[in-house]
Amino acid sequence: LQDEETRKDYDYMLDHPEEYYRHYYHYYSRRLAPKVDVRIVILVTVCAISVFQFFSWWSSYNEAINYLATVPKYRIQATEIARQQGLLNKTKEKGKNRRSKEEIREEEEEIIKDIIKNKIDIKGGYQKPKIYDILLFQILLAPFYLCKYIAWYCWWIYCFTIKGQEYGVEEKLYIIRRYMKMSQSQFDSLEDHQKETFLERQLWIRENYEVYKREQEEELKKKMAMDPRWKRYRRWMKNEGPGRLTFIDD
């Protein structure tokens, strides 16, 4: 009888001894109840997920840098910048300080990768991870983001619905992105000339976007019709696809 709740159950048992099933339930529910605070469990889980997210994003980012270092276009540009900055024109060491060719090659590779990191803005799923994007900080900053969104939404209604102002470039791209149902990172990964095409065709207007969408669907159908792999798949579905019964004579 360590706490008030246990004493109440005990007094209730003395007053109602016939309800033994109820007494057993309360007894074992208290004995088997978890001793760890649920809030601590949730906090540890969120922290573990956040750590996994951060290191996973760093791994994806490093993979993207390693890939770009093998692309001739970016590698040649990075090598030229390194030479201009004098990073690859260092005098050779002599005596005890002399390094092997493998060590020099590894150092040059790191220099090229560092230049690519500084000169190329990688967007989308392989962009450089930011600590504020992990789950823990997203939960902590959720009230701030909510207030920010409400303020932005009120500003949008006031400027473009009530006052009837014309959309700027950012607002037009925002509407186009919403029509395309793309996240911000996905839309940022598009090439600049694609976004310019969206603006030239005035896709922030719903009717223009519907026309563009139908054109893209028709173009995709044509590409699939001309694709040899898709043709083989259609022949397979027609002749030997799933659900087809064949009778072979023994």
Automatic annotation (TrEMBL):
Transmembrane segments: 40-58, 135-158
GO cellular component: endoplasmic reticulum membrane
Top-level lineage group: Eukaryota
Signal peptide extent: none
InterPro entries per UniProt: DNAJC25-like
GO BP annotations, alphabetical order: protein folding
Subcellular location: Membrane
Keywords of the record: Chaperone, Membrane, Transmembrane, Transmembrane helix
Protein name per UniProt: DJC25 protein
